[in-house]
């Protein structure tokens, strides 16, 4: 399992638009080979601090999505909504999402 996460600091006036854009991206991700699950989290103490967390079967399948036009379009659509560049994490078997069952 390959895990990838991005941490965002969103401009306060853009929070709802940013969430809508990421929800749309998550729906798109579901159609990609190797996608397991993706969640969007917001800090309850700082609602403009968000993280998207995504599990993929393999690093290669994630890389294919990362290079896709869908992901590039999402970046272009949301980059102006951010206060700073996102930070990221990547690795294998990182568990923030509870396994079903």
Annotation field: number of helices: 3
Strand order of the largest sheet: 2-3-1-4
Mean pLDDT: 88
Question: What coarse outline follows from CA principal-axis ratios?
Answer: globular
- Going by helix content, strand content and strand pairing, the class is alpha+beta
Order of SSEs:
EHEEHHE
Q: Summarize the amount of helix as a percent range.
A: 25-40%
Q: Gap between N and C termini, in Å?
A: 17 Å
Indicate the radius of gyration in whole angstroms: 13 Å
Uncertain segments are none
Strand content: 25-35%
CATH architecture descriptor text: 2-Layer Sandwich
- Which fold name is given in CATH as the topology? Alpha-Beta Plaits
Please summarize the sheet with the most strands. 4 strands, antiparallel
Number of spatially distinct domains = 1
Total strand segments: 4
CATH class: Alpha Beta
Description:
The protein starts with a strand and ends in a 9-residue tail after the last strand. It has a single domain (11-92), classed as Alpha-Beta Plaits. The mean pLDDT is 88. A four-stranded antiparallel β-sheet has the order 2-3-1-4. The protein has three helices and four strands. Strand 2 and strand 3 (49-56) form a beta hairpin. Helix 1 runs antiparallel to helix 3. The protein is of the alpha+beta class.
């Amino acid at each position: 399992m390959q895990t990838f996460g991005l941490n965002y600091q969103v401009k306060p006036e853009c929070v709802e638009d940013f969430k809508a854009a990421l929800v749309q991206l998550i729906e798109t991700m579901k159609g990609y080979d190797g996608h397991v699950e993706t969640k969007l989290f917001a800090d309850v103490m700082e609602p403009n601090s968000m993280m998207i967390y995504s599990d993929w079967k393999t690093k290669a399948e994630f890389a294919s999505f990362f290079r896709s036009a869908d992901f590039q379009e999402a970046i272009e659509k949301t980059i102006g909504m951010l206060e700073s560049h996102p930070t990221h994490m990547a690795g294998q078997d990182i568990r923030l999402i509870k396994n079903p069952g």
